[in-house]
Amino acid sequence: MNKTHSLNIAFEDLFKLIIGLIVDDLKVHRHLHHLSLSGLDTTPLHLKLHTRIFVLAGFKERDISEELEDWYFEQTKRVQSIDLVQDEEVLYDLSSEILAGLLKLRNEVYARRVGTSG
Questions:
Q1: 106, 59 Cβ separation under 8 angstroms
Q2: What percent of the chain has pLDDT over 90?
Q3: CA distances in angstroms from 30 to 73, 102, 106, listed in the order given
Q4: Is the Cβ–Cβ distance between 55 and 17 less than 8 Å?
Q5: At 73, which helix (H) or strand (E)?
Q6: Which residues have C-beta within 8 Å of that of residue 78, sequence separation ≥ 6?
Q7: pLDDT band at 101 (very low <50, low <70, confident <90, very high)
Q8: What's the pLDDT at 3?
Q9: pLDDT digits (tens, 9 = 90+) for 6-24
Q10: Is the distance from CB of 79 to CB of 26 less than 8 angstroms?
Q11: Rounded to an integer, what is the distance from CA 54 to the centroid of its chain?
Q12: Exposed / middle / buried, residue 53 (Cβ in 10 Å: 0-12, 13-18, 19+)
């Protein structure tokens, strides 16, 4: 008997899930930033949500590079200028922009791989 382990999720739902995780990650980054300003070592508090976000966006774990992480963390700095209570729509817009950037970077990574293997 052939047992296939698969998960069916609509693209729209997948994108909503990823954007929601990015929103959560942005909130965490903002709070950790403010905690670190008070002198607290926040290193043990980092959740590494970005790795899960990258995988959901289509990256293989082996393809998550330091350059990709640097790009992502640079984007997360933009949350510092957002009022998390009053500007929830802006937060979701930023999350959507980050996801669009991740998808573009993913396509570039795999297009290069296809181009060099042919």
A1: yes
A2: 79
A3: 11, 20, 26
A4: no
A5: helix 66-76
A6: 94
A7: very high
A8: 62
A9: 778 999 999 999 999 999 9
A10: yes
A11: 6
A12: buried
pLDDT tens column, 63-89 = 999 999 999 999 999 999 999 889 999
pTM for this model (two decimals)? 0.88
**Mean of the pLDDT values across residues 32-44?**
93
Q: Residue written as tokens 């905690």?
A: 35
Instruction: Say whether 52 sits in a helix, a strand or coil.
Output: helix
d(CA 46, CA 48): 6
Neighbour-count burial of 69, counting CB atoms closer than 10 A to its CB (0-12 exposed, 13-18 middle, 19+ buried) = middle
Specify burial of residue 115 (Cβ count, 10 A radius: 0-12, 13-18, 19+): exposed
Say whether pLDDT at 112 is over 90: no
**Residue (of 90, 91, 104, 74) closest to 22 by Cα position:** 91
Stated length of the chain: 118
Q: Hey, what are 42's tokens?
A: 């926040």
Q: Which two tokens stand for residue 11?
A: 């693209």
